[in-house]
Fold:
Amino acid sequence: MTALTLPDIAAQATHTFLPLDWVGMCKIAVPVLLDGRTLPASADAGVSLDDGTARGIHMSRLYLALEVFEHRPLTLSLLRQVLDGFLQSHSGLSAAAFLTLRFDLMLKRPAAVSPLAGWKAYPVTLAAQLKDEVFHVELNVELDYSSTCPCSAALARQMIQQQFLADFNERALNHDDLLTWLGSTQGVVATPHSQRSTAKLQVRLGSDIDALPIEALIDRAEAVLGTAVQTAVKRADEQAFALANGQNLMFCEDAARRLHQALRSITWLSGFALRVEHAESLHAHDAVAHSKWHW
Structure:
């Protein structure tokens, strides 16, 4: 009995001559090795279909090329190698290759003052592209922080002053009475509003690095914001967090400017775009600010 050759429909010519910008697969499950840990990731892999006469690409070749992430640490040179492999396996068909990886980077963060610590997940996206022999990678990171409204803080202080005048206008000031008043709800009649906020950083990595400095980027951003959300806390940590918020009042414009200046000082970045979102507790809408440099 004669064995039949398996048909290769994708290799057949199409009836419509039309190149395509991107053809591939999305949401491929793939493990990545980063900082000695294996992280579950989702990959989008694709190439351009520049040969407008070709019916399609060889998607299985893209899928198999991702197996290298199981065995080698995630670096810029590895991303370049995978994209080179995409193009080599589609010689004559494609001139551009694309790869996007999405995963959560888990970092253990200490409490403000106590010995407690807990895990935080930071959504990360790596978008790599090789086109016309030009390779570049964009790193996207999201991080949460707390923001206390300067206007609300000023209004709350004024209300406390008014209450002080009402309660002590005709009374002689006594240290113990004043201390009790400051520690009571009768004295502190108003508090400023704060909200969980998010910074979304998109940075273009320079050509002079190979390792992925994701944690360093997160550390720099959280340091300049000053009020990163906490994990495990005791009352002393909660009090320290309240103090940090009270001494670190910021509008969304303030947060965006702080981040912009911090990112400008990082030598391994060739450009960035950032967006901060303050999920208002006063309003039903959010306050948002954008900034960019060489983007």
